[in-house]
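chain below, 255 aa
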Amino acid sequence: MTTRRRALRWIRSNVELRTLLVLAMVVGGVWAFAGLAEEVIEGDTTTLDEALLLMFRTPGDLSDPIGPGWVEVMGRDVTALGGVLVLSIFTFAVAGFFAIRRSWGTVVYLLGSVGGGILISHSAKLLFARPRPELVPHGVEVITSSFPSGHSMMAAVTYLTLGVLVARVMPSRALKVYILALAVLMTVLVGVSRVYLGVHWPTDVLAGWLAGAAWAMACFLGARWLSRRGAVEPEAAAAEEPAVPTGETGPPGRR
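prediction:
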């Protein structure tokens, strides 16, 4: 058995260590969000925000995002993936997945987790009330304040929370990785699209990612705690890869 395999097995067998690691990620995300918010309020991120925002514009024409016209159209399509309607569709679709499995406790927990995260996102925007960028024209209509990015945070809350809740009940390690990778990809694409369309400062998006990821990890911890009490579906153990016996490089021959 390789050192890596032994280390992974030891971590899996020490549940409390895994809990501490995830808890550290939650605390780290909240701490990073608070630090970034302080920098934004003091105006220390203005120069960086402006420089990064201008990177997405054609030099000499701030009304034109970089790339051909179809890229801007795709940007609007991608940014819609962080809208309330699309996120609601994904949330209820995954809730239906758990309902088919008769995991009613998980259904309730899932809806409460996503709903709570979205409520925090809206509350944070009202609290900070940062103006939208006026450096470049907006690619889509916006009516709320800028910090943190609502689309970015709601996408992180929804996709990452749904991702961790679905991945934890998948028995295959490959499926777990695939589901979580898709959740991260969707979250990143929505955030980048907000900057590309000029409706958010980059630090707005980063703050949304940090807060949303911290919330998703907190929901994961909550699901583990509830699963020990039988309130939600227990986590499936990742299937072990079959080990190849020493000195055997191919399929065994006939005996």
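The first strand starts at residue 57 and ends at 58. Residues 15-42 form the longest helix (28 residues).
thats it, cya
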